[in-house]
Amino acid sequence: MTSNIHKLLTELGVNLADYQGNDIPSTSPINGLLLASLRADTEEQVKQKIDRAHAAFLEWRKVPAPRRGELIRLFGEELRTHKAALGQIVTLEAGKILQEGLGEVQEMIDICDFAVGLSRQLYGLTIASERPGHRMMEVWHPIGVVGVISAFNFPVAVWAWNAALAFVCGNSVTWKPSEKTPLTAVATHALFMKAVARFNSTSATGNDAPEGLAELIIGARDTGAQMVEDKRVALVSATGSTRMGRQVAEVCAKRLTRTILELGGNNAMIVAPSADLEMAVRAITFSAVGTAGQRCTTLRRLFVHDSIYDTLVPRLKKIYKALPIGNPLEKSTLIGPLVDQAAYEAMQTALTAAKAEQGKVFGGERVVVAGAESGYYVRPSIVEMSSQTAHMHHEVFAPIMYVVRYTDLQQAIDWNNEVPQGLSSSIFTTDMREAELFMSDVGSDCGIANVNIGPSGAEIGGAFGGEKDTGGGRESGSDAWKAYMRRSTNTVNYSHSLPLAQGISFDI
Ligand code: NAD
């Protein structure tokens, strides 16, 4: 496996010797074996990288936005060419099944396509002025260095969501990836640098991508913290746990800088009496067990109407019993490993707590996979609860789905909203009134509220993010790009007099 990852990295243009050291071990969740060990950037190196990124921003902002889009178009081409290799590296280092590793790279390609179009559409408004002979308008400008912090479970797509938009908006990007998945970051960085080289070879002087436009910072939390504290980082986009988000938010609030926070979720689905159960079963299974329950949008709480509970829940258990658990590189596998021992232990602690609250636990046991005995593989768990308890308010980053019976839709919506997180939610119903209520002002309080699809697996075209402890940030599609720019309101007087706003008279 080690030789395989080295081969894949070389194929993408990585010289591993440039990164090797003794600080950041990258182990594969597949079998717990060391893939490579990297050195962390020193304080001085982090500072130098931010220096370079800041200098790059001052040049890059002058390049016309559609030309900036050309760089992202070329990066999208590199991703298309190397999708198979990068997808495999994601699987080897993050442990998600190959289909999902490839899907993650596809998500990067999709956001590149979106950003290329966006590069010709960074438009502002013209606003009616109250003064005669005046024009008022709103213009969007690049903001500066964007510092991206990413989590292990989407080791490359999250950077791309941020970076593709940040670059076309005229910013430079410094990236501190998860210490659990540094190799995927190194590989992605190499692909981006290939695109930069092609871009610069076709560029007129002054229109090229400057050195330092994309800086990769390797390290653990303290390295991320140093990047967050640096005043030259104008926007911090941080994806990870709510604990991390609170720390980042505090530092950024102190120095009054902007953040995009994409934090933990605790996502629910309501299955109503009129639901198409065939569709619901597939959506529940993918949302609850996909990526071994390690998505921020994983389905963690299922509220099933009393009238269909005894049909649906036994069916889910039957499916759970037969789920193919194993090496994520194998085609037949649907459930790969948890990221590490700590994730396994957190899952077992949560199951013990559920039992103490009279929860009926199905599955959840460790599964030994031949040839990968040191990997932490588990059977996804269904936990039947008589009501929503305090334990269910916490996100446990593992495949545990709590199931609760409901009779009154309002009760189910209240449970949906009762938890501190507010990322994703969904309802399965064919009753138009229930669907509309769920999406209305008094329905789900989450950033994502779906009807007849599960809570996980968002498309890049919509703004992605959630409320409350999820952090309130929005990334990806819709008008999320505005967070990566600063807005300037311009009023132009083309008359020969100087009327003041609000009709104020100020004669001198
Ligand atoms: P984590 O919080 O442990 O780490 C995430 C990143 O933050 C890492 O790069 C880490 O080094 C860095 N970090 C931690 N503390 C920091 C600090 N004080 N200052 C600066 N950087 C710091 O999260 P994880 O275990 O890698 O990922 C799982 C979590 O991420 C889950 O809670 C999941 O829901 C969440 N997540 C959210 C989204 C989303 O879009 N909402 C997407 C993916 C994952």
Automatic annotation (TrEMBL):
It is an enzyme of class 1 (oxidoreductase). The chain crosses the membrane at residues 139-161. Residues 21-487 form the Aldehyde dehydrogenase domain. The keyword Transmembrane applies. It comes from the Bacteria. Keywords: Membrane, NAD, Oxidoreductase, Transmembrane, Transmembrane helix. The active site is at 262. Gene3D superfamilies: Aldehyde Dehydrogenase, Chain A, domain 1, Aldehyde Dehydrogenase, Chain A, domain 2. InterPro entries: Ald_DH/histidinol_DH, Ald_DH_C, Ald_DH_CS_GLU, Ald_DH_N, Aldehyde_DH_dom, ALDH7A1-like. Its EC number is 1.2.1.3. CDD domains: ALDH_F7_AASADH (cd07130). Homotetramer. Belongs to the aldehyde dehydrogenase family. PANTHER family: ALPHA-AMINOADIPIC SEMIALDEHYDE DEHYDROGENASE. This is aldehyde dehydrogenase (NAD(+)). It comes from Undibacterium amnicola.
